[in-house]
Specification:
mainly alpha
């Protein structure tokens, strides 16, 4: 009977050791999916604002919108290449920088944000 106990402990250790990498991969996939969804939402929000706003003849607003469009393109490129949650977070930060330019353009144009999400447009 005594050899069965060490054998059971050994089998349990092997099973636990095999399950750990699978759990880590699962956590990695969930984290990547969440980060990707967040960054894609920011990218879509930025694109919506760019499609909605027109600078008219306001050169400063046109410059802000051009900078926001650059951030939008960069965010899209980063998302297309992203394989880690950290890369998705960088894309989200670039989109947030684009939204800062959108907020500036709206202030220059005297219009409200076309999308009122998590961006502070109060000027505070």
């Amino acid at each position: 009977m005594l050899p069965i106990i060490p054998l059971a402990i050994g089998v349990g250790a092997v099973v636990a050791g095999a399950a750990l990498p699978a759990r880590r991969r699962s956590e990695h996939r969930r984290e990547l999916a969440a980060a990707t969804a967040t960054a894609r939402a920011a990218h879509n929000r930025l694109g919506f604002c760019l499609e909605t706003l027109a600078p008219g003849d306001n050169a400063a607003a046109a410059d802000s919108l051009a900078r926001a469009r650059e951030r939008w393109h960069t965010t899209g490129a980063l998302l297309a290449e992203a394989t880690t949650a950290e890369e998705c977070r960088v894309a989200d930060e670039v989109a947030a920088a684009g939204m800062d330019h959108i907020v500036r353009a709206c202030r220059l144009l005297g219009t409200p944000l076309p999308y009122s999400g998590a961006v502070d447009d109060t000027g505070a």
